[in-house]
Design goal:
Number of domains: 2
Order of helices and strands: HEHEHEHHEHEEHEEEEHHH
Number of helices: 10
Oligomer: single chain
Largest sheet: 6 strands, mixed
Radius of gyration: 19 Å
Length: about 300
């Protein structure tokens, strides 16, 4: 009998694990939803969901918690990709929550709508009765995210308690919840930023243009290069704007997401750049996560991540 050796690459193993997670959750829960921003992690999740259920369509909608302070390139890309796949897009609007008095907009130079996403997210989960929300968080990004299980329980108030997590042995996921509760599911938990970019290259995935080097008007604050074109970052008179060649490692609220100086205009150049860096993308580009080491964990406990 002829012997065959089957060797899986790192990406093959990660892909298989993520596809298993998608299928397990789709089988166990009635109303899953995929949190989708148009960024690289959520685009990788979309491709994994496509593969998990092919040739059937993705059997759940996608949801974007829209701060209203997004990069226009990302919103255009989000809408185009959702249209190509023919899936339903649910938008949970921070601006609508502000207009209705559900949340109060922050004031001041460092004001951001990032934290305000919690209320519209939880409202949308309740309105649509979603019982499982796929998120693109990875354990390599930040200490609080490294504490998460793949299937992470949220109580009836949408809160996460790191001291009350359920056991998760190997690939055995605890999916039991009662009415009013839900789980967050992280199919990319074991991926790194470099894995994401390698997968983008392997799958030939298109990304928003701001992931690649381009000329942009920016200004410097606390060592970050913040966007000066959209006007969302509340630039002060003592923060002069200038042109620089930059790209974004992550895309989020333009008021607090910084760019990095870069000449990487191709996918291979971005991968080479990421392979050489020793700073996580959130540590290098997110102003709100620099306020304290507990900033991310606080928001997770409140119900956002």
């Amino acid at each position: 009998m002829q012997r065959r050796d089957y060797l899986l690459s790192q990406l093959d193993v990660l892909e298989a694990e993520s596809i298993h997670i998608f299928r397990e959750v789709a089988a166990e829960f009635e109303r899953p939803v995929l949190l989708f921003s148009g960024g690289k992690d959520s685009l990788v999740m979309l491709r994994l969901a496509e593969k998990a259920f092919w040739p059937a369509p993705i059997p759940f909608p996608v949801m974007h918690v829209d701060t209203g302070h997004n990069f226009p390139e990302v919103i255009e890309f989000r809408d185009r990709r959702v249209g190509e796949l023919g899936i339903r897009l649910v938008v949970a609007s921070v601006q609508a929550a502000i207009d209705s008095g559900r949340v109060t907009e922050q004031k001041g130079r460092r004001a951001s709508r990032n934290r305000l996403q919690i209320t519209p997210l939880l409202d949308a989960i309740e309105e649509h009765r979603f019982d499982a929300a796929f998120g693109g968080a990875r354990r390599d990004e930040e200490k609080a995210r490294a504490k998460e299980r793949v299937v992470s329980f949220r109580d009836e108030f949408g809160q996460w308690d790191p001291k009350n997590q359920r056991p998760e042995l190997w690939n055995l996921f605890n999916t039991r919840i009662t009415q009013g509760e839900h789980v967050r599911v992280f199919p990319l938990s074991n991926w790194t930023e470099l894995d994401i970019w390698d997968y983008v290259r392997r799958e030939g995935l298109a990304l928003p243009s701001i992931y690649y080097a381009h000329t942009r008007r920016v200004f410097e604050r606390d060592g970050l290069l913040l966007d000066a074109e959209t006007g969302f970052a509340n630039r002060g008179d003592d923060e002069p704007e200038f042109e620089a060649t930059v790209r974004y490692r992550t895309v989020g609220d333009a008021s607090c997401t910084g760019a990095v100086k870069s000449a990487a205009v191709t996918l291979d150049e971005v991968i080479e750049e990421i392979a050489a860096t020793r700073i996580t993308e959130r540590g290098q580009t997110r102003a709100d996560d620099r306020t304290s080491e507990a900033a991310m964990e606080d928001r997770k406990k409140e119900g956002y991540f």
